[in-house]
């Protein structure tokens, strides 16, 4: 029996295949404009790896913003539950999971191995991957370049709470001739502050785990750790935490 | 001859019937007083031989109209209430001879100044708390002031006997409402939270208190029978207590969705619940003083401090055998928003139950996110 976890986020779609003991396949693809098409592409990719999701010996759970588009899924669950399960599995310790997503940033408290509480950013996209993407576009760099520029800069404070206003703020700084490195550092700091604020609204007991798209970014991790004054743990499979959680829950639910 | 508003045909049947009934009452010479809040002592209105009518304020439609005058970043309930009045799309407002408001928040009290330009609006000045030595005296004198305004505007004399009768009638109505709410404490509940919210709301379209009492008593008896026959001994879905701001304007987006996604709302610790009904007016005291004492006990977050709300919540969590608490905060409702941290602390640390706060407005813009939050919360309870 194999268990497939599919996490279709607003930016990237992550897939994990778990055989009941270990992860035997994983891949990521851009979500694109249609999560329905993405779900079909994932199905094709799984078939090319030898996994037929329609067969009786594969159980699939879909999560993330595009979860309802995965018509062949046996079950859908929210990304909160799946990230909680996946994040906990990576470290086997209670604590707080911070998932900086494309559209939503989530802070999930894990107590006795399960989700006990969670917070999400409000309607506004400040403090999410979307914010970084928009600001990188404004500086005419890609996201990785934005982070390397930031490392060499002195942050210019960005005070606007809302992405659109923050963009205007950046434009006025650009107009005033501020160096790109300082702007990049200011943008990263702004995201770090927003995420930290959400985390601090939780009563942190145990370890802090960073998952999601930014979990591989050492600079972001370090900045967030300094802001929260604690160590931030990451994992090679951090980006896959939601998909992993979905696959693990599938194994729990459908095991005979 | 009174005219119905131009867009009358677009109103739902229940509300249309209410309008027609009210039009009939007006034509028979009855006076109508529009009200918004559970602090309004409707006994005084009844004693003045007038009909108290809950005014419109639970729809997104007139909000853009209100924003011509009011700031955008304001509570949707206030904007909707004013928008209905200013755009002349609430027949209940239209038929009102007088509107009564209270200073339950800064947004409302300043909005009432604008409303007063459309229709005479009397605002009762609430004391900001119950603990100061003058709170009861202030509120007592506000009762007297409302009595004078009603007598003058409606040209009636309100005797103590009228008032005692009205108090007795309202107390009977409160008992009937409480018995109806009590159905929610049965496990599993035979009554949906959506129905609790809707029935209580629909009752504001009725203008005969005896009729209201009869409808409530009949429904309560039916539900009890339904429980014995079809529900008793069956498994229960997760049981949710709703708290926070009034939920009339987010009934579809939040109340209905919680139940569609797999839980039962068993009680409301907000204005749609027993907050105002749970204690009666003392029938053995001077009526105005008894009214002042009773309405000062309403546990709205506008009162500072407000530990009674926590006590009420404690009692409801136990009585209704609650599994989780969802707090609904309307955008820019400062007193409830600030109090929510205390509610969260109480629910999670003292009652050891999961708590979720949903901050929203009347728009549909956050429907997807609200669904995700509710689903994730119910997955915790599963």
UniProtKB/TrEMBL annotation, chain A:
Keywords: Iron, Iron-sulfur, Metal-binding
A family per Pfam: BcrAD_BadFG
Cofactor: [4Fe-4S] cluster
Keyword Zinc among UniProt keywords: no
Residue ranges of domain ATPase BadF/BadG/BcrA/BcrD type in the record: 4-250
Domain of life of the native organism: Bacteria
GO molecular function: iron-sulfur cluster binding; metal ion binding
NCBIfam families: CoA_E_activ (TIGR00241)
Protein's name in the database: (R)-hydroxyglutaryl-CoA dehydratase activator
Organism (species): Syntrophomonas wolfei subsp. wolfei (strain DSM 2245B / Goettingen)
From TrEMBL, chain B:
UniProt cross-references to InterPro entries, sorted A to Z: FldB/FldC_alpha/beta (IPR010327), YjiM-like (IPR047678)
Pfam family, one: HGD-D
Names of the cofactor(s): [4Fe-4S] cluster
Molecular function in Gene Ontology: hydro-lyase activity; iron-sulfur cluster binding
Top-rank lineage group of the source organism: Bacteria
Keyword annotations from UniProtKB, A to Z: Iron, Iron-sulfur, Metal-binding
PANTHER family: 2-HYDROXYGLUTARYL-COA DEHYDRATASE, D-COMPONENT-RELATED, DEHYDRATASE SUBUNIT YJIM-RELATED
Protein name according to UniProt: (R)-2-hydroxyglutaryl-CoA dehydratase, beta subunit, putative
Species the sequence originates in: Syntrophomonas wolfei subsp. wolfei (strain DSM 2245B / Goettingen)
Lineage: Bacteria, Bacillati, Bacillota, Clostridia, Eubacteriales
